[in-house]
Design a protein that fits this description.
The protein contains 15 helices and eleven strands. The chain is mostly helical. The strands form five sheets. The protein has a three-stranded antiparallel beta sheet.
Length: about 350
Amino acid sequence: MLRMTTKKGFVQIPNVAFGFGTDYKLNKDDIKVYAYLQFAKSVGTMKVRTNIEIIVEDLGWETTKASRDKARVADALNNLIDKGYINATFKKDIKKDTLTISINEEMKDVKAQSTVDWKQNPFKFKGHTQIKIDEYNLADKNDYHLLMVGYYLWRNNADFKYAICDKEWAEVLELSIKRTRTIIDDYTPFLIKISGAKFKGENGQWKQEPNTYVMGKHMSIEDKAEKVSIEANKETFGEKHMSKVLDVKVMTDNEIYKQIFDFTVFIKGDGYKVWKETTCEHTQKTGQLKIEKMMKSVGGRNAVERLETKYQKDIASAKEHERQMEVMHKRAEQHMAEMEDEYISPFKPKKQEDLSFFDDDF
């Protein structure tokens, strides 16, 4: 995906674009192309003159099959045209011709609503959501992230914090609930999920409130950990993991435990060392999952590389210290041996007198 290096600028997404169950719903490709065209327009004239190949290249959608890449962009453009988000003119073939595209600003005023069988009141979609450069860049190369960023920003603002259940995310992403949970939990490092509180319903069965989310806007695990403090009245980390931990260092050090098992806490050198050297399978696997999630963002990947570099340096330093101590010990032993060989005792035994006269008395 085209990554913006400037710190200024934004795109505006009509909220009907998230309107699952309506004719205005945009999929992950549609919304990427729509945002891209807005950025292209912001640095040019009121209209964008481009072609399919340029869009493919700028979005980083190139594969080994160019015809499929072009078809992907063409499908998104046709959806945007059909749903009223853009106007486009070209001679004959949208895949081959130069395109002249303009953004239909009236879409920001369109309203829509949809109903689902798992919610009593309908979902209402109106207005628009502004996505700033740093927020846009969070999406990076993941196909679903820009859609998630936009929906989160709309549902969470200065006036209201909206809980989003998994079923709702699944509608927005147009995926199964299982796949949706995997993407949110394992492949979205900038979005922290706070599980809803559990409670007993009227029939005595346990239920759970919808999840809420907090988004780190600075593209790194460090910033996310520093800026977000989560305290939830739900199943604790100890209840989830401590019973499975067999590593004494983890069990007896709460900070080390959080560094490995709490995905909102930044792992430091001491926690990284424990994870690298643990023989506890559960600790090793959970730490590995955390490292893999960190590696999916630029900031997280850099942090892991720094931790690994420091760990290897510490190992090398410890080995060198051990080698030097061994050398010093051998030298000391050699020196003592040499001293013993050269040592001459100052003691001189007295010359004994002849005591044979005692024999004469017998």
